[in-house]
Amino acid sequence: MKRVRAIVSGRVQGVCFRAYAHDKARELGVRGYVRNLWSGDVEIVAEGEDAAVDALIAWAWEGPPWAHVSGVDIELLPPGEEFRGFEVRN
Question: Which residues, 6+ apart, have CB-to-CB distance to 73 below 8 Å?
């Protein structure tokens, strides 16, 4: 079990990044959330099986078709049990 916090930078707001991340996380069985930050970045907090979380982070480097990702900063966090699914937060 793995939990990460990823800050995705670049042109990642206004390009449906959160909706695509939500769909990808659900496809992979990852729990957590995605949200826009005031800085213009997107935050992903993801928890699940190591390979699934790694796959979501690999996807974040590409993002949806209209995104241009310039960086993904990863922070490992201790696993928890509070997430039931994956949600888009404002």
Answer: 6, 7, 9
